[in-house]
UniProtKB/TrEMBL annotation:
It is a peripheral membrane protein. The keyword Cytoplasm does not apply. Its EC number is 7.2.2.11. It is found in: Cell membrane. GO terms for molecular function: ABC-type nickel transporter activity; ATP binding; ATP hydrolysis activity. This is Nickel import system ATP-binding protein NikD. The keyword Translocase applies. Residues 4-240 form the ABC transporter domain. One of its GO terms (cellular component) is plasma membrane. SMART domains: AAA (SM00382). The lineage of its organism: Bacteria, Bacillati, Actinomycetota, Actinomycetes, Streptosporangiales. Keywords: ATP-binding, Cell membrane, Ion transport, Membrane, Nickel, Nickel transport, Nucleotide-binding, Translocase, Transport.
Length: 318
């Protein structure tokens, strides 16, 4: 059963199209990695899950359903209840996501209610020092602040945690520690995770499924080991081949040639066509429909033939 369903979602920002008919599903207890280049629409899709989009954003089509509730159609009181009961969010900048004027303990009490055991929730994210509770956000390191944000997001036992590049600002050692905290807490609580990330090897190791975004659409989705180890969409293959974290020592990286599109309306065909080495004439004017290839769902006219087999970059295959 799907906890989250996104259907044909279209979001525009003042003449720029961020989502161009995005589709995504996350099942109860499932971990899904959402990957793609900057500008592909990941953050917009993640924010749309909780209707947290900026005021400039406009939805013209599609829907988001969380736990059976149509997110964009809910009145304010029911939307607040949905967020409180079903959703948790962890964002890129841990300091900015916390209130700079309040001590950490007071912020947790706002979430949990007075009388709550704040120390227990900080202990779950490996922050056992009582000084953390009395500290202001600016007095914490980036890793500590992100753990506080995770504690707040998980304190109410959400069914779905949306993590938008939660370790982007952290060094590699702290990054692994923070991810371990996120995924262990979620596993213990049965919480689903939608993880927006550029780190393909980490996504391959930690996620059940992967959804690949390009040009405001999810162009490939399926089991992590299949999508990243045996991609059916040319963009997925190019993205995996350009991942610095996945490259073996001495192996030359092949960047995805060209530039990501800046859409002002619906893409007339496949948005990846100008950069695709396998593009056909119809790719420019005919929007691809989903095709099932093995265990993957793919938006590509070539998908039934698959892309030429290549050895996946070292470290990407789970």
């Amino acid at each position: 059963m799907s906890l989250l369903t996104v259907r044909n979602l279209v979001i525009d920002y003042a003449g720029t199209r961020a989502l161009d008919g995005a589709d995504l599903e996350v099942a109860q207890g499932e971990t899904v990695g959402l990957v793609g280049e900057s500008g592909s629409g990941k953050s917009t899709l993640g924010s749309a899950v909780g209707r947290l989009l900026p005021r400039a954003a406009r939805r013209s089509e599609g829907e988001v359903v969380v736990a059976g509730e149509p997110v964009f159609d809910l009145p304010a009181d029911r939307l607040r209840r949905l967020r409180r009961k079903h959703l948790g969010f962890v964002f890129q900048d841990p300091i900015a996501s916390l209130d700079p004027t309040m001590r950490v303990g007071d912020q947790l009490r706002l979430v949990l209610g007075r009388g709550a055991d704040v120390g227990f929730h900080l202990g779950r994210v490996k922050l056992d020092d009582p000084r953390v509770m009395r500290a202001y956000p600016h007095q914490l390191s980036g890793g500590m602040a992100q753990r506080v944000a995770i504690a707040m997001a998980m304190a109410t036992g959400p069914e779905l945690l949306v993590a938008d590049e939660p370790t982007a600002a952290l060094d590699s050692q702290v990054r692994e520690e923070v991810l371990n905290v996120v995924f262990s807490l979620a596993a213990a609580a049965g919480t689903s995770i939608l993880w927006l990330s550029h780190d393909l090897p980490a996504v391959a190791r930690r996620c059940d499924r992967v959804a690949v975004m390009y040009g405001g659409r999810v162009v490939e989705t399926g089991p992590a080991r299949e999508v990243l180890g045996n991609p059916a969409h040319p963009y997925t293959a190019a993205l995996a081949g350009s991942a610095p974290a996945a490259a073996a020592h001495g192996v030359r990286l092949e960047p995805v040639r060209g530039r990501p599109p800046v859409l002002t309306g619906p893409s007339p065909g496949c948005a990846f066509a100008p950069r695709c080495p396998f593009a056909e004439e119809r790719c420019e004017h005919e929007r691809p429909e989903p095709v099932r290839v093995g265990e993957q769902d793919v938006l590509c006219h070539r998908a039934p033939r698959r892309i030429p087999a290549t050895e996946p970059p070292n470290g990407v295959r789970p």
